[in-house]
Amino acid sequence: MDNIAGLMKKVKIPEKIIPASKVQTEDGLSLKAVKKNLEERMNEKAKIYGFIGMEVYDLSKEKKIEIVQIKAYLDKMDALNSEIEGLEKQKEELEKKSAGKNICSCGYKLKPQDRFCPNCGEVVARDMLICSCGAELAKDVKFCSVCGKRAEDILQEQEIMKAAPKMRECICGAKVPEGQFMCMECGRKLE
Q1: Which residue in 157, 179, 156 sits closest to 167, CA to CA?
Q2: 147 close to 108: Cβ distance less than 8 angstroms
Q3: Which of 5, 132, 163, 183 is the most buried (most CB within 10 A)?
Q4: CB 104 within 8 A of CB 110
């Protein structure tokens, strides 16, 4: 129980909560304002649940806390993590097998001129390099014949674009992957 009390102290609770009775227009309560206030409170509640969940999970993995009632959920989380690792390995293997062929990882048969899969939008890996200037180059060349850029630099740019997810910065300074709705550092909802 001491661990839970310590955990609750770590959770940030909003300092200013506007009571629903104060959200009014001249003719009484505004439905839009009440809905907005309700949505904000529900989002805050979800964020607090997220923090509690992350803290409890981390503490249980470090063997600092043991709560029998949530052991089943922690076991499910471990099973999901194992499944995710297995799926990531399968994805890598399938990408290696389909590289250089005219079949996308989604199974769609590609045309030789396709740069993107018309079915799923994935970038098509080819035996040819495509320079940032748009020229198609054989993989064994050292320089682009149109703009003079080194082939090594072109390959590095392409690898960086494939490997790194697009990131954006939260107000707190943390880097957050594009598409993520919540900062894992400060818990802010990102828009």
Answers
A1: 179
A2: no
A3: 183
A4: yes
In terms of pTM, does the model score above 0.85? Answer: no
Residue closest to 129 by CA, chosen among 105, 159, 103, 102:
159
* pLDDT tens, residue by residue, 38-66: 888 888 888 888 888 888 888 888 888 88
- Asked if 88 and 98 count as a contact pair (C-beta separation under 8 A), the reply is no
Spatial distance between the Cα atoms of 152 and 165, rounded to a whole number of angstroms: 21
pLDDT in tens, 143-154: 888 888 888 888
CA 43 from centroid of its chain's CA atoms: 19
Distance (Å, rounded) from C-alpha 2 to C-alpha 129?
60
Amino acid at 118: P
**Gyration radius of the chain over CA positions:** 25
Q: Alpha carbon 18 to chain centroid distance? A: 32
Which distant-in-sequence residues (6+ apart) come within 8 Å of 57 by Cβ? Answer: 74, 77
Which pair of structure tokens corresponds to residue 141? 């060349």
Q: What sign results for the dihedral spanned by CA atoms 17, 20, 25, 31? A: positive
